């Protein structure tokens, strides 16, 4: 059996369902072996970066590890951005990368670059296979690293001659990552810390959602009765009307939650990743922190840890909920919750004369079912989504926030639909990000997928226009022309609709939701 066949057996053993990638000379043997697999579908895409985005979003939503594939040289370099995005957003991902024959590694050679050095800074682990006998070990190690808290990206570099070597090895047993729980002493110390402080404030991050601890969190919140704010990626943990829900924090400007956080005397930080927002932006007073996470706290002067509960977040909260937690009776001053609802435009009554992104988002909330997955591209609309849009369930809003990568939305829809085939999937993208990976609509159509793409057509990079005009009084290099998106969609065999009012948008959205067959595009003239 050739090594490529053993590699496929190892991938099957890890539960891989899909591999997103582009075929190149150095991975031909692997793709040939994949063609014989009854368990793995190879999905040939239009750009390697798009392949990594698909694998990233698939991993976030499926609970499995996403896998992408590229060949050496430009194929590998194209894969870097999507791999780095998965790493910073803590999505489980394995990048498989072809490489030149080992005999070409010691001299200047066509398309050869040191891929281990290239991928090491953007992965948890990057290994090149130098001995085919180690192939099962390297595969098991990569998937273990990718899935372990905190999840992220792993990369495997596979020289072409390795794939065609005869090999008799078998896959190693794939075991789930172990769960740990805090010691009884540390739980007692955390409970005493909570009792000691009158004004605790909860800050919730993506780690809580990753570890499926939302139910335990809600019990803890109801017992403690303290205010709660969440990061962009933890949206959906509480309904907006919940009295303790002080909505989203982590904005660069106008972060209304900061006034409430500043009144606290203790911050209870649960499952928060520093890549979401550094503590210096939200703990300027250096308030003491109760750190609850899967890993020990990072060292940071704005994150003064008074106690740590390190272990599986779900199990940790269960232990806390079994303890005697003191109920707190405080709310931030100045009717902050109502002020935030107004600032986030959650109380605004929509109208059809004009159309704002906030009104579009409210219409999506109103008209779509609970399980809807919304994928935000990066741009000014991302800020509006982080403020206004309220998913009805956790892990149903996908935002690139660690690397904040434009272009993720359209390929992300493919990963989302494969992970959640029965859920409506909607992308919201600006005209800056839309054309970066518009070609992946052909991939989606070829796969027979169904989702909706909403393109905001305003002929500019709106966020950068705002920033430049604020700093310099004018903007430069941030405006462009656009194609007719409806005709472009039609050229892909996709139904396209252009709308200019909220009424027109709601009509188009309702029509799509009533007959969600295939891919549709709605162009917003704003």
From TrEMBL:
Thiamine pyrophosphate enzyme N-terminal TPP-binding domain: residues covered: 1-115
Cellular component GO terms held in the UniProt record: acetolactate synthase complex
A Pfam family the protein falls into: TPP_enzyme_N
Keywords (A to Z) from UniProt: Thiamine pyrophosphate
Lineage: superkingdom: Bacteria
InterPro entries named among the record's database cross-references: DHS-like_NAD/FAD-binding_dom, THDP-binding, Thiamin_PyroP_enz_cen_dom, Thiamin_PyroP_enz_TPP-bd_dom, TPP-bd_CS, TPP_enz, TPP_enzyme_TPP-bd
All copies of domain Thiamine pyrophosphate enzyme TPP-binding, residue ranges: 377-523
Domain Thiamine pyrophosphate enzyme central: 187-319
Family: Belongs to the TPP enzyme family.
Name of the molecule in the record: Acetolactate synthase large subunit
Species assigned in the record: Neobacillus piezotolerans
Source species taxonomy: Bacteria, Bacillati, Bacillota, Bacilli, Bacillales
């Amino acid at each position: 059996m050739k090594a490529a066949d053993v590699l496929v057996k190892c991938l099957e053993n890890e539960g891989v369902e899909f591999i997103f990638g582009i075929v190149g000379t150095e991975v031909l043997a692997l793709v040939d072996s994949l063609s014989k697999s009854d368990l793995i579908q190879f999905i040939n895409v239009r750009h390697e970066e798009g392949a990594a985005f698909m694998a990233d979003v698939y991993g976030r939503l499926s609970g499995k590890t996403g896998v992408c594939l590229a060949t050496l040289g430009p194929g590998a370099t194209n894969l870097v951005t999507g791999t780095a995005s998965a790493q910073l957003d803590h999505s489980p991902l394995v990048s498989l990368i072809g490489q030149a024959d080992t005999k070409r590694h010691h001299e200047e050679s066509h398309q050869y670059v040191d891929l281990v050095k290239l991928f090491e800074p953007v992965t948890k682990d990057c290994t090149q296979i130098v001995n085919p006998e180690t192939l099962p070990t390297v595969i098991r190690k990569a998937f273990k690293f990718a899935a372990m808290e905190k999840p992220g990206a792993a990369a495997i570099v596979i020289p072409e001659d390795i794939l065609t070597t005869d090999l008799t090895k078998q896959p190693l047993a794939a075991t789930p990552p172990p769960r740990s729980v805090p010691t009884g002493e540390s739980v007692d110390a955390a409970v005493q810390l909570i009792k000691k402080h009158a004004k605790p404030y909860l800050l919730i991050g993506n780690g809580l959602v990753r570890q499926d601890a939302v139910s335990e969190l809600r019990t803890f919140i109801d017992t403690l009765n303290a205010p709660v704010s969440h990061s962009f990626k933890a949206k959906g943990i509480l309904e907006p009307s919940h009295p303790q829900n002080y909505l989203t924090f982590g904005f660069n400007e106008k972060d209304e939650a900061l006034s409430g956080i500043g009144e606290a005397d203790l911050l209870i930080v649960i499952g928060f990743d520093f890549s979401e927002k550094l503590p210096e932006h939200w703990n300027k007073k250096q308030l003491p922190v109760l750190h609850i996470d899967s890993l020990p706290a990072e060292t940071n002067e704005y994150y003064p840890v008074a106690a740590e509960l390190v272990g599986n977040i779900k199990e940790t909260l269960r232990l806390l909920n079994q303890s005697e937690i003191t109920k707190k009776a405080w709310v931030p001053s100045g009717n902050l919750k109502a002020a935030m609802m107004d600032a986030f435009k959650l109380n605004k009554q929509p109208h059809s004369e004009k159309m704002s992104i906030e009104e579009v988002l409210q219409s999506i909330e109103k008209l779509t079912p609970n399980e809807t997955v919304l994928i935000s591209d990066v741009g000014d609309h991302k800020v509006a989504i982080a403020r206004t849009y309220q998913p009805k369930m956790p892990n149903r809003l996908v935002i690139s926030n660690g690397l904040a990568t434009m272009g993720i939305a359209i390929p992300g829809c493919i990963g989302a639909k494969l992970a959640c085939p029965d859920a409506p999937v909607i992308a919201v993208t600006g005209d800056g990000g839309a054309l970066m990976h518009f070609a992946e609509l052909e991939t989606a159509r070829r796969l027979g997928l169904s989702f909706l793409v909403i393109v905001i057509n305003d002929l500019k990079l709106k966020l950068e226009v705002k920033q430049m005009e604020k700093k310099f009084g004018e903007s430069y290099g941030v405006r462009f022309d656009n194609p007719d998106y409806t005709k472009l969609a039609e050229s892909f065999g996709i139904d396209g609709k252009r709308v200019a009012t909220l009424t027109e948008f709601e009509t188009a959205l309702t029509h799509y939701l009533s007959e969600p067959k295939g891919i549709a595009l709605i162009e917003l003239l704003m």
